[in-house]
Design a protein that fits this description.
single chain; alpha/beta; six-stranded parallel beta sheet; 12 helices; 6 strands; about 10% strand; elongated
């Protein structure tokens, strides 16, 4: 017996192609549409047995909000997500929102059809290998590189970042003071604070550390150095 269903996908052409293929296999497709603010409303109003919800970004916040709405207003509708091989957070988010299944978007039509039938029967429709991969990644997460540049940048004030940039450019205390419109003693104090916060003993070490960690690139991407002050400033 065919399934009464709807197809909702990020790409309308893909939704229509999948809908056509399922019609040829004897299923009743009520609508094929691209997701939008009204997608959940459409599913709720048509009340299919199964909704195939396609997405290219399963881990993006809010992408499964339509499922929450559908399950709230039409709890009998089984939602099967079609998406890329997800991160553990992506597949968890889908089921937490109320999905009955998750199928790879490149799955053969027979696999999609099996998932639809299982979801309609109230079973979880997900490839065991997909779950195994997700659980393996959860138990053995890939190590994330330590972004030392970002961490060090957070230790410095905007004024100290400007001082570090000038140090890396080879400016001495006199040039730093002149360029920033501050007294040489103030410039010297800023330099010492920068060295202390970075945990280095010399200007050369500070410049090398900033270059190695990408700190200077991050500083350049920020709001930029503060405008020069008029006259000497207190340290």
């Amino acid at each position: 017996m065919g399934v009464r269903l709807m197809v909702v996908d990020d790409h309308r052409l893909l939704a229509e192609a999948l809908a056509s293929a399922l019609k040829l296999r004897g299923h009743r497709v009520l609508a094929a549409a691209a997701p939008s603010a009204g997608a959940a409303d459409l599913v709720v109003s048509r009340a299919p047995e199964v909704c195939l919800l396609g997405t290219a970004t399963p881990a993006e916040p809010g992408v499964f909000d339509p499922i929450v709405r559908i399950k709230r207003d039409r709890p009998q509708v089984a939602v099967v997500v079609l998406g890329p091989v997800p991160s553990p957070l992506g597949i968890a988010a889908a089921f937490a929102a109320g999905a009955s299944g998750y199928v790879r978007h490149n799955e053969r039509i027979e696999g999609v059809e099996r998932a639809m039938m299982k979801a309609r029967a109230g079973e979880a429709a997900v490839d065991p290998q997909l779950l195994q991969g997700a659980f393996t990644e959860l138990l053995n997460p890939a190590a994330q590189p330590d972004d030392e540049g970002a961490r060090l940048l957070q230790l410095l004030t905007p004024r100290e970042v400007e001082v570090l940039v000038r140090v890396a450019e080879g400016e001495d205390t006199r040039l730093i003071a002149a360029g920033m419109g501050i007294a040489p003693s103030t410039a010297r104090t800023h330099v010492q604070r920068v060295l202390m916060k970075l945990g280095v003993g010399s200007r050369l070490e500070a410049a090398a550390l900033a270059a190695r960690t990408g700190l200077l690139d991050r500083a350049a991407a920020g709001p930029g150095p503060l405008p020069p002050q008029r006259g000497p400033a207190a340290p």
